[in-house]
Please model this.
Amino acid sequence: MAGTSKTSKRAPQTTIIKVGANEAGKLPPQAQELEDSVIGALMIEKEAYGTVADLLRPEVFYKDQNRMVFEAIRELAAKDQPIDVMTVGEKMKTQGTLEKAGGLVYLADLSRRVASAAHLRYHAQIIAQKATARDLIAMAAQIEEKAYDETQDIDDLMQEAEAGIFEITQRSQKRDVTQIDPVIEEAFKRMEKAAQNTGSISGIPSGFNALDKITSGWQTPDLVIIAARPAMGKTAFVLSMAKHMAIDREIPTAIFSLEMSNVQLVNRLIMNVCEIEGEKIKTGKMSKADSQKLNTKINIMKGKPLYMDDTPSLSIFELRSKARKLVHDHGVRIIIIDYLQLMNAQGSSFGSREQEVSIISRGLKGLAKELDIPIIALSQLNRGVEARTGIEGKTPQLSDLRESGAIEQDADMVCFIHRPEYYHIYTDEKSAKDLRGLAQIIVAKHRNGATDSIWLRFRGKYAKFQNEDEAIDPDELNTPMIPDGGGMSIQSSMNSAMGAVSFGQQMNADGASMNSLGEDLSQYQL
Model:
């Protein structure tokens, strides 16, 4: 977005900021004497630049002369060349900025004002903070001007404002180097906490025993990518996990669904929990047995810490804001995103979709670290899988990740969902294993552990994954999968504003009235 990119290129250098006072009669935040002191110290102390290199950029200097001098100092430092009045002067000559800045006289004057580089880093921090304040003022002025323009789309403007704040925050956020002792202490605390668990799961359990043996549960602050081709059951997989985490174990869980509405997602969850076929939920025509299951098991879902958000085309900046609130207000311990390629980085400038996806994946990893929780993001695979043949050929590979190699780079773990029977492969030729009704979960990348693969049972008509050793009805084999994103809706009244579902007096196949189902599920949504 143009507004934001201007901000990142030093919007504070515009006329309104650089004149003595702004429209309100106030001088922009600045610390010119400290700027002079810092620049002088950099030219008299050999190791001074390394002390402040992470804090300062040419753009943080309010005085143009100081900005020009610092640009020369930074270039000398990058080439590991000596930094003093003469070398800086020569570098500025080649850059064509020496006379503009006041010549060697100005450089000598700066160096004479400083006796030593004491408190240099503290002074540099103040300069950087003043620059951040000017950035905020400049961005606020741009947003204010556009807010008065009635032709501006307010939603776009809010996105621009949020993206601008995010960009300024990212530039100004600095973490100091940490001595090892407090880190060791934190590591011991986590080990002690893990040792208190009766089992071997130190993270958040997925509910799939074989997978948890590999991962020890979803770990903080990991970014986990779960990728598959369409119709493999990505949404069913994470909903099965969400059911185990939020409903069975009451671990606060949030799902951001960019593809399905909250109502569709809850329908899938009802299928999973109540084990009722989607077609029956869609039509409301159920047997007495199904009605009884629905009446009984629907109560399992109520009051559980499962939070849903179905904002379409969610931006990484909106997600950051909502995720912080979820963690702060509801103690959410894991976030699921369905799915990554439907997100955007609106408000940032990028040259291609690959770059945009890179921004998103980096943002997700940064958010996981900031909130200290695992984030699970679903992802599409490209069509390379379809072009290959045989059971080995159809198995997903890291190179199949769609649109950006940055996804693989940023992720702590990459898992694939592969259902051979979808490609009419019913037997593993090597082991003679019957693959009907099975899904392979492949841990293709595991930054903090081993890679491996496990098998789960997939129950298509309930859109449900479960452990392989759990028994099912043999008639369920070869049941076709409901494609991800398939539109299912209950024929009932809907509160579209809240995304609530109400089950009315639906008649089942036996003609019996489905009473006492007028329950509101709005508590599962943001």
